Amino acid sequence: MAGVTRTPTNLTQGSKTKGGIGESTLRPDGTLKVTGEFAYSSDLWHEDMLWGFTLRSTEAHAELVSIDTSEALAQPGVYAVLTYDDLPADVKHYGLEIQDTPVLAHGKVRHHGEPVAIVAADHPETARRAAAKIKIEYRQLPLVTDEASALAEDAPLIHEGRDDHHIGHVPHPNIVHRQPIIRGNADEARKKADVIVEGEYVFGMQDQAFLGPESGLAVPSEDGGVELYVATQWLHSDLRQIAPVLGLPEEKVRMTLSGVGGAFGGREDISMQIHACLLALHTGKPVKIVYNRFESFFGHVHRHPAKLWYEHGATKDGKLTHMKCRIVLDGGAYASASPAVVGNASSLSAGPYVIDDVEIEAIALYTNNPPCGAMRGFGAVQACFAYEAQMDKLADKLGLDRVAFRQLNAMEQGTIMPTGQPVDSPAPVAELLRRVKAMPLPPERQWESSEGADVRQLPGGLSNTTHGEGVVRGVGYAVGIKNVGFSEGFDDYSTAKVRMEVVAGEPVATVHTAMAEVGQGGVTVHAQIARTELGVTQVTIHPADTQVGSAGSTSASRQTYVTGGAVKNACELVREKVLEIGRRKMGTFHPAWATAELLLEGGKVITDGGEVLADLVDVLEDEVVELEEEWRHRPTVAFDLETGQGDGHVQYSFAAHRAVVEVDTELGLVKVIELACAQDVGKALNPLSVVGQIQGGTTQGLGVAVMEEIIVDPKTAKVRNPSFTDYLIPTILDTPTIPVDVLELADEHAPYGLRGIGEAPTLSSTPAVLAAIRNATGLELNKTPVRPEHLTGT
Amino acid sequence: MRVNFTVNGRKQEADDVWEGESLLYVLRERLGLPGSKNACEQGECGSCTVRLDGVPVCSCLVAAGQVEGREVVTVEGLADFAKQRAEGCASGACGTELNKAQQWQAKPADSQTGEGSGLSPIQQAFIDAGAVQCGFCTPGLLVAADELLERNTSPSDADIREALSGNLCRCTGYEKILDAVRLAAARGEAETAGTGV
Ligand code: FES
Ligand code: FES
């Protein structure tokens, strides 16, 4: 075998039906994925490749007194050992928004697991053993682990000499970003309240835990550049950060997306990309890096843990009077996406409710804890957990039904957000709650049968801890609001290149974008859009790479909207060109070429009245129509730094959940019996995939509710559970039935009326489960995840 | 060391294997069969599941030396394995050549029906039911689910959950994985009964 093998290939898919939008067409990469042929980034292979390994700091905050690599370098089979001093360019830092992250640690390490040195060797084990021979002398520095230690008078600064664009408006250099939002007069409105409810909530650190580990292959090329095959969420964002630290122009770093084993935000930041390129350029050999699970826990950012304080008031007839909240997000050692997470947390902190008078503040801290950044739900998740708990408390205090109370205060189209932005498309919050409540409840005591209790259906499961004694049922509801797309004035565009030609006597469309397919099904949808717009059945999806313009990130529930929009737009332009060709060649044969609205359907040009004018094959003959176009959704603006006012978001997305749990109150074990979801998706481009996204997002929310938390030792800031043995994600036994009710109310601003869907179900899932457990136990439970000791009080 | 064993019904040998290498590493890096996945390499996720003498195991936990003389079936051999089993070949072990397994080429399938692909019933059901998102968990799940249906042609939901409890999936929430196994079972029963599903 020569050259790189197991690189991504074209995906070609035909269809016996129209296969357009609205149909549940199957994934074009499905066959490759079930046969083991799909080329994931960890599967890449090159005949003389080396294996890279990253040595990471064992300390959370320490001065690097010395690093001795000589023994490691002397090991047989070792080709390179690089540290900060070996970096080739003047630029030595990178970052999504703030370039505060050193490629390799310099002077000090700021968190446990920070990369200090990288090794290339001919076997992964050789690289690992060599790395273990690197001698590092650390001198401990005082730790910053929470708000108190970050803002203390003598607090060490995590980043000295900050010159980023947030430093001017933050009250302390250990605060990455602060966003207040003031609307109306909360103190005045408070006087109208008959009941006031206050609460403090703690949200634990969640890991994306995508299954495909960080990995990729860098191959040095003859022109001094590098080819990089990698799993990421945004090729062009990586490129912008990689090229400068390699000292290369962007065109010499050619990136191709390899198979991505899930992402959920955890691949928004750079992981092994730069390290592999550095080693490849240094050794002149291809270098592959694959993290193992332990390293993966250190190799990407996590969901921000948060402390949230809320106060709500309501009149006795159940109308919300005001809300005040303060949200403190722990951003860890580097900025990553913290500023944008702050923007989301603050602007969505009131939830999907009408509240005219608010006083909101959100901040993200710099600490020595693991860096936190993007994860599905992005700032809105933490807020939803807290405001939904508040809603239940208010309803209870008022003696109102919890769902009815929410419906009474639910926002709708036309409601003004705390930011002053009107919600200008359907916001069926009350309806989603109605739907989820209307679903039939699972029968009680399902585990009971004539042969006794089926322990598999009880809390504790096969551990056989109860046969039903002490088991109590609870039901909980929650609803949430998430923004779709990049907000606050970001130029959130995408690019699509579409080609139409006749291949083997059939019209074929080829779609080429840089969109990262991470499992969400973007490739399926692109083929559907091309079929709908171009009237073909055969569609080829070109692998994503940097030979085409940026698609933006596969995050923020934005890809179907934005890259889908770009594909639709490019297809429309291709269609125009095809019709021009038709008019040129055949316009004289039939007057409708000039007068009618023309469509492409079933491989033909037809009039809007359904009359066939020509076969596409005859129109095109051997002509190829191809074009590449950028596409943008309507612009947004930044939030005012003092008042938080501004039309900062593109679109909103809503989901509601009902959770049914059974709790073994003696042992504190929880079994979630059912987690029903209702969501408005605007338009389901692929209903099968839509339901899959909703179920997957729901399950990640369930994980946070009862299982998932990265535990950081408050005394050492070290991660205690970086493995799937100790960081538990839901298995098929932990995950209940997830009935889904999909509502389709078109958003007239969006392509096909669609609404971004990936994140909303992750929001309300967690508070619904918490509400159900509270309902079963009567406990207050202000922290995720709920652990047995929280339920038994031991 | 050298390890001789049977992979997907054909004898293979792997040379220069280190003491500490796992079966997973040998399959992926030495035999060119990366279909078995490496999501944790500590026995917690099931993405590396293969059949070892018919029994589903996490290949990341099996030392390569332990498979000397034994039989392994990987996802790359699953379609042939199922076909041969259906045709009565003992335990389906008539085999897939290594170079064929390395280059598994399913015939292009239709976007709606997935017809005509030459896949095993469980593979086809995973596609049809929408049980594949990122697909990283899929190879391990397929091997485990295929083994379940081999010993239990009409499993209850509780049976399915129990059999797949060692396989993590982060994308789907499992609901469509359950659908896929139910679908494959229903199709299998329909086939036995001579009716189509
Ligand atoms: S890779 Fe073997 S169990 Fe996870
Ligand atoms: S489909 Fe991604 S882990 Fe299961």
Description:
The complex is a heterodimer of chains A (794) and B (197). Chain A has 794 residues and is of the alpha+beta class. Among the domains of chain A are: 149 residues, Aldehyde Oxidoreductase, domain 4 (2-Layer Sandwich); 171 residues, Aldehyde oxidase/xanthine dehydrogenase, a/b hammerhead (Aldehyde Oxidoreductase, domain 3), CATH 3.90.1170; 195 residues, Aldehyde oxidase/xanthine dehydrogenase, molybdopterin binding domain (Aldehyde Oxidoreductase, domain 4). Helices cover 25% and strands 26% of the residues of chain A. In chain A, the strands form ten sheets. Chain A has a seven-stranded mixed beta sheet, sandwiched between helices. A five-stranded mixed beta sheet of chain A has the order 2-28-27-26-32. A five-stranded mixed beta sheet of chain A has the order 12-21-20-19-13. In chain A, helix 13 links the parallel strand 27 and strand 28. In chain A, helix 6 crosses helix 7, helix 11 packs antiparallel against helix 12 and helix 17 crosses helix 18. The radius of gyration of chain A is 27 Å and the shape is globular. Chain A starts with a strand and ends with a helix. The mean pLDDT of chain A is 97. Chain B is an alpha+beta fold. Chain B has one domain: Beta-grasp domain (Ubiquitin-like (UB roll)). Chain B is 36% helix and 11% strand. Chain B has seven helices and five strands; from the N terminus they run E-E-H-E-E-E-H-H-H-H-H-H. In chain B, strands 2-1-5-3-4 form a five-stranded mixed beta sheet, sandwiched between helices. In chain B, strand 3 and strand 4 form a beta hairpin. In chain B, helix 4 packs across helix 7. The longest helix of chain B has 19 residues. Chain B is globular. In chain B, 57% of the residues are buried. At the A-B interface, helix 1 and helix 17 of A face helix 4, helix 5, helix 6 and helix 7 of B.
